[in-house]
Every structure is written in structure tokens, then in C-alpha cells.
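Researcher: If only I could read C-alpha cells as easily as an amino acid sequence. Walk me, if you will, through where the backbone shape changes along the chain. I have put the entry right below:
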Amino acid sequence: ISLFSLLVFLRYQIYYGYPLETYLEYPIIIAQDVILLYCIMHFSGKAKRALFYAVVFWGGWYMLTLQKWIIDLAMNLCTFVSAASKLVQLQHLWQTKDSGQVSALTWGMSAYTCATRIITTVMTTNDLAVLIRFIIMLILNIWVTATILHYRKTKKTD
């Protein structure tokens, strides 16, 4: 799902002709995910399925921009899916009341990344859908980080 979100976001940026600097990291991240998925399929003996997924990828890549409303809808759905995954993480933290192996630093860095993306989006494209996405993700990332810190178990020293 995260690979699909990256693809939609990349295609959205290209479709609207935004500056390369605003989305340059996405092709690199997507390439890493594709290589990882291929390695998983290769070593699990399912490499022939990789061709099917490649065809689906290229077909989806083309279909996203058949109509403007399709790419806009896909962008909004990706925001919804990303927010839902963070809400599931929050729900799990609330139920277990234990942050366990969840890293507050990682979630904090995600919040910082969203904050910087808000600033760069305002300065470069001022795209409302992208701004809404990053504002929602910033709020949820801060919320997850605060929840992790709240439920963190401190080590007792003798």
C-alpha cells in the first residue's frame, strides 16, 4: 500500500508539472521498494509473478492520468489510507498501553519531515491537496509520538 501511495504521489506531482525538487526522492524510494519486492519474490520462488506486478504497475501508472479527477481522487484516497494506518497504530498503543518496540525517534522524524514538506509545499506549489495531506500526517505523527512517549516504560535503576 505504501508503494502505491508513493506512486500516486509521484504521478500527481508529475501530472501537475511541479518542480523536480519537490518530488525527487520519490523515484529513489520507489526503485528501492521495487528492488526489495523483486528480491522477496525471487528468493521465495515467485519471480514469474514479478512480470504480472510490473504490468499492473505500468497500467496503473498510465491510468492514473487518463482523467484529472482520477489522479485527484487517488491522491485523496492515499491520504485517507495513510491516516488510517496511523490511527490503527494509535489504537494499538491505546489498547496495549505499551509502546513496546515502537520508536519515538522514528515517529518524531516523520513529524519533522511532514513539517518541512508543508513549508516547501507552501513555498513552491501551494497545492491544497498536498498541504492537507501533510498537515493531517503531521498532526497524526505528533499524536503517535506523544502516545509512544506517554506509554514508554522507564527502566528502574537500583
